[in-house]
Amino acid sequence: MHETLLVQNIHSYYGKSHILFDVNFSVKKGETFCLMGRNGAGKTTTFKSIVMLVPPKEGKVIFNGKEINGLKPYHAARLGIGLVPEDRRIFGDLTVKDNLLLGTSSGRHGYWNLEQIYEYFPILLDYQDKPAGTMSGGEQQMLTIARTLMGNPEILLLDEPTEGLSPVMVKVLKDLVLKIKELGTTILLSEQNIKFCMAVADRVVIIDKGHIVYQADVASFRQDDDVKKKYLAV
Amino acid sequence: MTFEIFISQFFGGLSVAMLLFLVASGLTLIFGVAKVFNFAHGSFYMLGAYFSYQAISMFENFWIGAVAAALGAGLVGMLLEICFIRRIAGREEEGAFQILLTYAFILILDDAVKYIWGPAYKTISKPDSLAGSLDFGQVTIPTFNLFIIVLGLVIVVAAWYVLSRTKTGKIIQAASTDTQMVGMLGVNVSLVMSLVFGVATAMGGLAGAMAAPLRTVAPGSGVEVIIDSLIVVVIGGLGNFWGALFAALLIGEVNAFGILWMPQWASLLSFAVMIVVLIFKPKGLFSREKGRKKI
Question: What pairs with residue B66 in β-bridges?
Fold first, then answer.
């Protein structure tokens, strides 16, 4: 398995605040990799640095063997990095269908198209002509993921997808992530929900105060209660 | 007021409204999509009038003048966006910088036209084909005014089509809610911004060329227009394209009838309408109140 994404010693800043310190990890092709950490640990900033929304000041982001530092976020999307942001950011005034079609702006083709999306997310078919803003939070979360899938990303970055969802929706989401994984898409997930992470991930890293403090496969992580207690406040 | 006067004023108001819409819709589009308050938007109207004057004096054809006005103003608009406005986007001081920068554009463009064409007023004649008037029974309406109304309607329909039926339009609508997210989906947002600037300033330029035979071509004319356009944009709701259309029609007609009703105070009427609207709808008539999100 070769590495789809390499994050090499990145340091990222918001203005003058140093947020990420020497963050280092790699995601192999086809695996589901989970970035865990408390609120404010640097998960979202790591994602934003990967898509060049917050370009790292030091270090490299390498995607499929090519350094992407200095590119714009839209380049990253066109190369196949699809980010599903934590705050969903659907276009509430546009219809569900229009939201999905905007997802094709990356110009990438593959498994996912409107037909597949509607087959997998029947709720989106029911709502297709309604403004996306009228859907519930859980439905909007599905739409955000579906919208990014429409761009047929090679790696899907899911930023805290279970946040604010009901247990029923979390179960639906788990099945969806497993399905996307089964289709061969590489997934980088950020989570605080340990159960969810263990159910879908192959490997886990923990980020704390902007530093990577732990890295293991999911089987070891499952046993490692001390780590969970120390960094994830369980 | 006789029926004839009513109809004649109504059409007069409509043609003014359409010119106002061409400028105000561009102003509101730029604000809605790029979150830039282009204080200099009226200057593109003025530039359009001068470009049209220049092209007409070279080619003696009104229509070449109109095309030159739209293209020229659009190009200058895109250039200013690429060279200057883009540089201040996303900075903390952006709001204040926008006002300073676009105000500087007003001064620079005003002086540039004085330098190139001189301070004296210029005049442009209506094209021969539209110089006459049409009689509808007792009512006579200048053909040129009717043409402006039709042109305005064509642009309204074209804008509706582009905004609501094409992918570009959907991208523009999406960018007005969340530019960053649109970029993350693979859209080259900078290009979209430049195009929006180009189209918006081209519409301003076209309005300048169309208004030139009715008014005069003069340095400083942009400032008058920006005030009226601001009123329109504020009434319609900042960033709301259809609000700008409605408000332009309202202000055009209020001015047309106001001048009959209270000639000395007519110029204050648009402000009065704006104040009344703001008392009841502080964010403009077409502002969208955000609904609560369900979980």
Answer: none
Q: Which residue of A has its CA nearest to B288?
A: A93
Domain assignment of residue B292, yes or no: no
In a domain, B291, yes or no: no
- Residue A171 parent element (H or E): helix A167-182
Q: B91 and chain A: CB distance < 8 Å anywhere?
A: no
CA distances from A150 to A9, A45, B15, B291 (A): 31, 24, 45, 27
Model-level pTM?
0.88
- What count of CB pairs under 8 Å joins A to B? 75
Separation between Cα atoms, residue B244 and residue B177, nearest integer Å: 18
CA distance between the termini of chain B = 57
Domain assignment of residue B28, given as a range: 3-280
Q: Does B181 fall in a domain? A: yes
pLDDT in 10s for each residue of chain B, 295 residues: 788 888 999 999 999 999 999 999 999 999 988 888 899 999 999 999 999 999 999 999 999 999 999 999 999 999 999 999 998 887 777 888 989 999 999 999 999 999 999 999 999 999 999 999 998 888 889 999 999 999 999 999 999 999 999 999 999 999 988 999 999 999 999 999 999 999 999 999 999 999 999 998 999 899 989 999 999 999 999 888 899 999 999 999 999 999 888 888 888 999 999 999 999 999 999 876 543 333 3
Split into its structural domains, chain B has a count of 1
Confirm whether B139 is domain-assigned. yes
Q: Is the ipTM of this complex over 0.85?
A: yes
The CATH number assigned to the domain holding B71 equals: 1.10.3470
Closest CB from A85, A136, A166 relative to B181: A85
Contacts of A96 in chain B (CB under 8 A): none
